[in-house]
Amino acid sequence: MSLDIIKQGAEGRLYLGEFKGEPCLIKERFVKKYRHPDLDAQITRQRMKAEAKAVGRCQSAGILTPRILHSDLNSHKLYMEFFENAQTAKQYIQETVADSKSEQAQQTLEQLCSRLGSIIGQMHSQNIIHGDLTTSNVLINPNANAKDGYDIIFIDFGLSHYNQATEDKGVDLYVLERALLSTHSEQPYLFEHILQAYRTHCGQDEAAVLAKFEEVRARGRKRTMLG
Protein backbone atom coordinates (compact mmCIF):
# COMPACT_ATOMS: atom_id res chain seq x y z
CA MET A 1 0.00 0.00 0.00
CA SER A 2 1.39 3.40 -0.99
CA LEU A 3 1.38 6.02 1.72
CA ASP A 4 0.92 9.76 1.27
CA ILE A 5 3.48 11.64 3.31
CA ILE A 6 2.02 14.80 4.84
CA LYS A 7 4.80 15.92 7.19
CA GLN A 8 8.43 15.21 7.88
CA GLY A 9 10.24 16.34 10.99
CA ALA A 10 13.49 15.71 12.82
CA GLU A 11 12.18 12.59 14.54
CA GLY A 12 10.08 10.94 11.86
CA ARG A 13 7.52 11.07 9.08
CA LEU A 14 3.75 11.38 9.19
CA TYR A 15 1.69 9.59 6.56
CA LEU A 16 -1.97 9.46 5.67
CA GLY A 17 -2.93 5.79 5.45
CA GLU A 18 -5.49 3.21 6.44
CA PHE A 19 -5.93 0.66 9.21
CA LYS A 20 -8.61 -2.04 8.95
CA GLY A 21 -10.53 0.11 6.49
CA GLU A 22 -10.36 3.23 8.65
CA PRO A 23 -8.42 6.32 7.49
CA CYS A 24 -5.58 6.97 9.88
CA LEU A 25 -2.33 8.79 10.42
CA ILE A 26 0.84 6.72 10.53
CA LYS A 27 3.77 8.06 12.48
CA GLU A 28 7.07 6.44 11.54
CA ARG A 29 10.19 7.11 13.58
CA PHE A 30 13.52 7.44 11.78
CA VAL A 31 16.40 5.07 12.35
CA LYS A 32 19.21 7.10 13.94
CA LYS A 33 22.28 5.89 12.06
CA TYR A 34 24.70 7.61 14.43
CA ARG A 35 23.59 5.19 17.18
CA HIS A 36 24.36 1.51 17.46
CA PRO A 37 21.45 -0.35 15.81
CA ASP A 38 20.54 -2.27 18.97
CA LEU A 39 20.60 0.88 21.11
CA ASP A 40 18.60 2.80 18.52
CA ALA A 41 15.94 0.08 18.40
CA GLN A 42 15.75 0.02 22.20
CA ILE A 43 15.39 3.82 22.52
CA THR A 44 12.80 3.98 19.75
CA ARG A 45 10.69 1.24 21.35
CA GLN A 46 10.87 2.98 24.73
CA ARG A 47 9.74 6.27 23.23
CA MET A 48 6.91 4.64 21.30
CA LYS A 49 5.70 2.90 24.47
CA ALA A 50 5.98 6.16 26.42
CA GLU A 51 3.92 7.97 23.79
CA ALA A 52 1.22 5.31 23.88
CA LYS A 53 1.12 5.41 27.69
CA ALA A 54 0.84 9.21 27.73
CA VAL A 55 -2.07 9.07 25.30
CA GLY A 56 -3.76 6.44 27.44
CA ARG A 57 -3.28 8.49 30.61
CA CYS A 58 -4.71 11.58 28.90
CA GLN A 59 -7.75 9.69 27.71
CA SER A 60 -8.32 8.26 31.20
CA ALA A 61 -8.26 11.84 32.52
CA GLY A 62 -10.79 13.00 29.91
CA ILE A 63 -8.23 14.87 27.79
CA LEU A 64 -8.85 14.43 24.07
CA THR A 65 -6.07 12.86 22.01
CA PRO A 66 -6.08 10.74 18.84
CA ARG A 67 -6.83 7.09 19.55
CA ILE A 68 -3.89 4.79 18.89
CA LEU A 69 -5.26 2.11 16.60
CA HIS A 70 -2.14 -0.02 16.36
CA SER A 71 1.49 0.03 17.43
CA ASP A 72 4.13 -1.79 15.36
CA LEU A 73 7.34 -1.77 17.36
CA ASN A 74 9.26 -3.66 14.66
CA SER A 75 8.63 -1.11 11.91
CA HIS A 76 8.56 1.82 14.40
CA LYS A 77 5.06 2.90 13.34
CA LEU A 78 2.09 4.16 15.31
CA TYR A 79 -1.32 4.09 13.63
CA MET A 80 -3.52 6.87 14.99
CA GLU A 81 -7.00 8.29 14.60
CA PHE A 82 -7.30 10.84 11.79
CA PHE A 83 -9.41 14.01 12.15
CA GLU A 84 -10.19 15.01 8.60
CA ASN A 85 -11.74 18.41 9.36
CA ALA A 86 -9.35 19.52 12.07
CA GLN A 87 -6.80 22.29 11.84
CA THR A 88 -3.94 23.13 14.14
CA ALA A 89 -4.37 25.78 16.82
CA LYS A 90 -1.62 27.68 14.98
CA GLN A 91 -3.77 27.83 11.84
CA TYR A 92 -6.88 28.66 13.86
CA ILE A 93 -5.18 31.60 15.58
CA GLN A 94 -3.76 32.95 12.34
CA GLU A 95 -7.12 32.68 10.53
CA THR A 96 -9.01 34.25 13.44
CA VAL A 97 -6.67 37.24 13.43
CA ALA A 98 -6.92 37.59 9.64
CA ASP A 99 -10.70 37.18 9.41
CA SER A 100 -11.94 39.13 12.46
CA LYS A 101 -11.76 42.67 13.78
CA SER A 102 -9.10 43.15 16.43
CA GLU A 103 -11.38 43.16 19.50
CA GLN A 104 -13.46 40.23 18.26
CA ALA A 105 -10.35 38.22 17.42
CA GLN A 106 -8.85 38.85 20.86
CA GLN A 107 -12.04 37.76 22.61
CA THR A 108 -12.21 34.56 20.54
CA LEU A 109 -8.56 33.75 21.19
CA GLU A 110 -8.83 34.49 24.91
CA GLN A 111 -11.60 31.88 25.08
CA LEU A 112 -9.37 29.40 23.28
CA CYS A 113 -6.46 30.13 25.62
CA SER A 114 -8.60 29.67 28.70
CA ARG A 115 -9.55 26.23 27.48
CA LEU A 116 -5.96 25.39 26.59
CA GLY A 117 -4.74 26.46 30.03
CA SER A 118 -7.39 24.36 31.74
CA ILE A 119 -6.42 21.26 29.78
CA ILE A 120 -2.68 21.73 30.31
CA GLY A 121 -3.32 22.24 34.02
CA GLN A 122 -5.37 19.06 34.09
CA MET A 123 -2.58 17.23 32.24
CA HIS A 124 0.02 18.38 34.76
CA SER A 125 -2.23 17.53 37.68
CA GLN A 126 -2.02 13.95 36.38
CA ASN A 127 1.80 14.29 36.15
CA ILE A 128 1.73 14.01 32.36
CA ILE A 129 4.51 16.08 30.75
CA HIS A 130 3.85 16.75 27.08
CA GLY A 131 7.40 17.73 26.20
CA ASP A 132 6.61 19.82 23.11
CA LEU A 133 3.74 22.20 23.83
CA THR A 134 3.20 24.36 20.75
CA THR A 135 0.14 25.51 18.83
CA SER A 136 1.19 23.10 16.07
CA ASN A 137 0.63 20.20 18.48
CA VAL A 138 -2.97 21.11 19.27
CA LEU A 139 -5.88 20.38 16.94
CA ILE A 140 -9.11 22.37 16.74
CA ASN A 141 -11.76 19.92 15.58
CA PRO A 142 -15.24 21.25 14.66
CA ASN A 143 -18.00 19.83 16.87
CA ALA A 144 -21.38 21.54 16.96
CA ASN A 145 -22.15 19.94 20.33
CA ALA A 146 -18.94 21.08 22.03
CA LYS A 147 -18.18 24.31 23.86
CA ASP A 148 -17.48 27.14 21.39
CA GLY A 149 -18.30 24.71 18.56
CA TYR A 150 -15.05 22.75 18.63
CA ASP A 151 -13.04 20.13 20.49
CA ILE A 152 -9.43 20.67 21.53
CA ILE A 153 -7.22 17.66 20.81
CA PHE A 154 -3.61 17.40 21.95
CA ILE A 155 -1.25 15.54 19.62
CA ASP A 156 2.39 14.46 19.24
CA PHE A 157 3.38 12.97 22.58
CA GLY A 158 6.69 11.74 21.17
CA LEU A 159 8.68 13.59 23.85
CA SER A 160 6.21 13.02 26.66
CA HIS A 161 6.84 11.33 29.98
CA TYR A 162 5.27 10.78 33.36
CA ASN A 163 6.85 12.79 36.18
CA GLN A 164 5.76 14.56 39.36
CA ALA A 165 8.71 16.98 39.24
CA THR A 166 7.77 20.66 39.26
CA GLU A 167 10.89 21.33 37.16
CA ASP A 168 9.49 19.31 34.24
CA LYS A 169 6.12 21.05 34.48
CA GLY A 170 7.85 24.44 34.59
CA VAL A 171 9.89 23.54 31.51
CA ASP A 172 6.70 22.44 29.73
CA LEU A 173 5.19 25.88 30.36
CA TYR A 174 8.37 27.66 29.30
CA VAL A 175 8.51 25.75 26.01
CA LEU A 176 4.92 26.83 25.36
CA GLU A 177 5.65 30.47 26.19
CA ARG A 178 8.66 30.55 23.85
CA ALA A 179 6.65 28.89 21.08
CA LEU A 180 3.85 31.45 21.41
CA LEU A 181 6.26 34.39 21.40
CA SER A 182 7.95 33.00 18.30
CA THR A 183 4.88 31.98 16.31
CA HIS A 184 2.26 34.48 17.50
CA SER A 185 4.34 37.51 18.49
CA GLU A 186 1.55 39.92 17.51
CA GLN A 187 -0.75 38.37 20.12
CA PRO A 188 1.34 38.74 23.30
CA TYR A 189 -1.71 38.22 25.55
CA LEU A 190 -2.11 34.54 24.62
CA PHE A 191 0.22 33.00 27.18
CA GLU A 192 -1.08 35.07 30.09
CA HIS A 193 -4.62 33.83 29.47
CA ILE A 194 -3.37 30.26 29.26
CA LEU A 195 -1.52 30.73 32.55
CA GLN A 196 -4.56 32.21 34.30
CA ALA A 197 -6.65 29.13 33.52
CA TYR A 198 -3.72 26.81 34.23
CA ARG A 199 -3.47 28.13 37.80
CA THR A 200 -6.95 26.89 38.67
CA HIS A 201 -6.56 23.42 37.17
CA CYS A 202 -2.98 22.29 37.84
CA GLY A 203 -3.65 20.87 41.30
CA GLN A 204 -2.09 21.34 44.70
CA ASP A 205 1.39 22.01 43.30
CA GLU A 206 0.30 25.29 41.70
CA ALA A 207 2.61 27.58 43.69
CA ALA A 208 5.62 25.26 43.37
CA VAL A 209 5.12 24.74 39.63
CA LEU A 210 4.75 28.45 38.90
CA ALA A 211 7.79 29.27 41.05
CA LYS A 212 9.79 26.69 39.11
CA PHE A 213 8.48 28.12 35.84
CA GLU A 214 9.80 31.55 36.85
CA GLU A 215 13.19 29.97 37.60
CA VAL A 216 13.27 28.25 34.21
CA ARG A 217 12.21 31.49 32.51
CA ALA A 218 14.98 33.42 34.28
CA ARG A 219 17.57 30.85 33.20
CA GLY A 220 16.31 31.08 29.64
CA ARG A 221 16.57 34.86 29.62
CA LYS A 222 20.08 34.69 31.01
CA ARG A 223 21.14 32.27 28.26
CA THR A 224 19.61 34.59 25.66
CA MET A 225 21.47 37.61 27.04
CA LEU A 226 24.78 35.77 27.14
CA GLY A 227 24.29 34.21 23.72
TrEMBL record:
The record's SUPFAM superfamilies line, in alphabetical order, gives: Protein kinase-like (PK-like)
* Biological-process GO terms, alphabetical: tRNA processing; tRNA threonylcarbamoyladenosine metabolic process
> InterPro entries from the xrefs?
Bud32, Kinase-like_dom_sf, Prot_kinase_dom, Tyr_kinase_AS
Q: Which compartments does it reside in?
A: Nucleus
| GO MF term list | ATP binding; hydrolase activity; protein serine/threonine kinase activity
EC number(s) in its UniProt entry? 2.7.11.1
Q: Does the keyword field hold Nucleus?
A: yes
Name of this chain's protein: non-specific serine/threonine protein kinase
The organism encoding this protein is Drosophila busckii (Fruit fly)
